[in-house]
Design a protein that fits this description.
Largest sheet: 7 strands, mixed
Order of helices and strands: HHEHEHEHEHEEEEEHHHEEEHEHEH
Radius of gyration: 21 Å
Structural class: alpha/beta
Shape: globular
Strand content: 15-25%
Helix content: 25-40%
Length: 364
């Protein structure tokens, strides 16, 4: 089976994890945690990082640290993984779902402008499947209305917007290091920002709101959202290889594009002229003229030993968030979209096997 994505792990990862085990520091205290925070923040081009247990809690922690809660609204693209909306709901605030830009598939700044109300506190820009959102347009809106601009960069490690890396484009950003991400810690997340006060607040809340001078005195309700030293050891090793992983994904995306660009009924993934898409998931749209539905093509590929995934369901269509909204761009992409094998270990021969199976079905 050709997987959609699998981690690439080697000797360096083993070396650092074994070193961590031998040190005895395997929980949330240890040198690798602080090292991973420093090095990942520097990679993004910002000063501070806070390592967390996963990407979802990283986003919840940021929202909690910002004081967002009951009665507030946070604008979220509907076309994203469910964690983006759920993290807002955890705080008691309301996620306000907006449509996608048809050219980038990311949050549409014009839709954001229409959704802003006196209750709006923040905008979450998701860099969907590795393609950055239009951050300048969102920055104008955030500044005009006094809103916090948050990057959900869980899927876009190393992606660039007008030459700048994700993580440095908003007021604060969050990343995920789940096993299928560009770099992984198994589970894991990171908050990065230049805002020292916000970072200190995140540290405080993620560590059970523990007073510095007395570890068993707690002045607020906090969380246990910390990353372990074992996870961080894996992350440090992965970060040393991140450019290798990104280069592999770019090569594979170019290979896919060359093989699939002339196939009728296939829309290739976006890459705006101002963006560097890192293709966390190489995603195509199966148009009606292909002659086969998205789901039928997925079944065909599965028979050929090729794993795929459908594009996320728009959040406004999920039972807990469905209030009858119509967001046609997000709905259309979700109906047609398919994630093809995309991992950094994917070989040119495997890309050819995927493309051959797609083209074979297109010619019938």
């Amino acid at each position: 089976m050709i997987p959609v994505a699998a981690p690439v792990l080697g000797d360096k990862e083993i070396e650092y994890v074994v070193d961590c085990i031998r040190s005895g520091w395997v929980s949330s205290l240890g040198d690798y945690v602080r090292r991973f925070e420093r090095e990942f923040a520097a990679y993004c081009g910002v000063r501070y990082g806070v390592a967390t247990h996963n990407g979802t809690v990283a986003l919840h922690l940021v929202l909690a640290a910002l004081g967002i809660g009951q009665g507030d609204e946070v604008i979220v693209p509907s076309l994203t993984f469910v964690a983006t909306g759920n993290a807002v709901a955890y705080t008691g605030a309301s996620p306000v779902f907006v449509d996608s830009d048809p050219l980038t598939w990311t949050i549409d700044p014009q839709a954001v402008a229409r959704a802003i109300t006196p209750r709006t506190r923040a905008i979450i820009a998701v860099h969907l499947y590795g393609h950055p959102a239009d951050m300048d347009a969102l920055r104008v809106l955030a500044d005009e209305h006094g809103l916090i601009l948050i990057e959900d960069a869980a899927e876009a490690h190393g992606a660039r917007y007008k030459g700048r890396r994700t993580g440095s484009l908003g007021d604060v950003a969050v990343f995920s290091f789940y096993g299928n991400k560009i770099i992984t810690t198994g589970e894991g997340g990171m908050i990065v920002s230049d805002d020292e006060a916000l970072i200190e607040r995140c540290y405080f809340l993620e560590n059970q709101a523990k007073a510095r001078e007395n570890p068993y005195w707690h002045t607020e309700i906090g969380y246990n959202y910390r990353m372990t030293n074992l996870q961080a050891a894996l992350g440090v090793a992965q970060l040393e290889r991140i450019e290798e992983f990104i280069a592999a994904r770019l090569r594979n995306a170019h290979h896919y594009n060359q093989r699939l660009k002339d196939v009728p009924g296939i829309t290739l993934p976006p890459c705006a002229e101002w963006a560097m898409n890192v293709y966390w998931m190489y995603t195509i749209l199966i148009e009606d003229e292909f002659g086969l539905s998205r789901d039928a093509l997925m079944a065909h590929l599965r028979e050929r030993g090729i794993e795929t995934r459908p594009v996320f369901y728009p959040l406004h269509r999920l039972p807990m968030y469905n209030c009858g909204q119509s967001l046609p761009v997000a709905e259309d992409i979700a109906r047609k979209g398919i994630n093809l094998p995309s991992g950094s270990a994917l070989t040119p021969a495997e890309v050819d096997a995927v493309c051959d199976a797609i083209i074979e079905r297109a010619r019938r």
